[in-house]
Amino acid sequence: MCSDRNKDAKRPRRATAQTVADLAGVSRSAVSRAFTPGAYVDSEKRRRILKIAADTGYQPNALAAGLKAGQSNLVAVFVGNMRSPYDSAFVGELAQALSGLKKWPILIDRTGANTDQALRELLRYPLDALILRGGSMSEEIVDRCARFGIPMISSGRPVQGPRVDNVCCRNADGMTMITDLLISRGRRRFGFLSGPEEFYSSSRRRAGVLQALDRAGLDLVAEHPTDYSVDSGYGAARSLLSRASLDALVCANDATAIGALSAARDLSLNVPGDLAIVGFDDIAMAKWPTFRLTTVRNPIDAAVDAIIALLERRLVDPGRPEESIFLDPSVIERETH
Questions:
Q1: CA dist list (Å): 133 to 51, 168, 296
Q2: What class has domain 69-169+302-323?
Q3: Nearest-angstrom CA–CA distance, 211 and 331
Q4: In its keyword annotation, does this UniProt entry include Transcription regulation (predicted)?
Q5: Residues 87 and 81: beta-carbon distance below 8 Å
Q6: pTM for the whole thing?
């Protein structure tokens, strides 16, 4: 049986700058200069250093270089619900944009780990900034993140705090617009599938529905909570439609609406003849021929552009006043209304 020491001896070690310097017969500073654009080093010496680096697999430590320049280039992205198709698409586009900015995202999915442990782990890294998907996260967690003292951008839920910038969709306006559309098409008996009560997006979207109904002199006939998933949308819709006569079902997000569409079909309801069903977000599945869901677009590209702009401005001027950017939603008419 091999000892731990023998195992360590067999394990390949990562080449360092000193390894390259020793093999090339140069100083460690010469190795550093060889990898620094514009720094002077004899051309033959540079060629020898780079060849040995390639042969040994040496790469300069980007994190150490960044810290010397005052930035780590690490950005934590704390996500509320990676099971959500919208959050998954959002994070994918955000990660690509951060990489284009030469910032490297550390992704933390709150649903996959203990929240307290995840927050503690964040502080172990010398972060340039923290980006928070706050729309699908409880207010308590958002507030705790804001107290870290790290420059933060909250996406989805406005947060007040020093060096905290915000990007948020006008959720209530979007729901008011799509509810107004249904009212204009003659719908009068409305149901609502809400999201988790503690989510900012859910409460604002519900407020938008109620505002439009109140303005039209209508009441909400019935509502049922969901966890923003397809499965919960299906179950909630079946429960709601079994006890209430509705001609319109407004859903707090697209995943819920897609579940509701399946429930309506299983109950032999014609959509949109018997029942209009609409969602919010405009995820990729919403446009699939199977669904063709009428919904509200919560623009990911505009949100990511705004986050990157705020991040760049905050890194250039850490003491600048806090800024909030509110994005306008738009109604996307398809075939379910």
A1: 44, 10, 19
A2: alpha beta
A3: 17
A4: yes
A5: yes
A6: 0.77
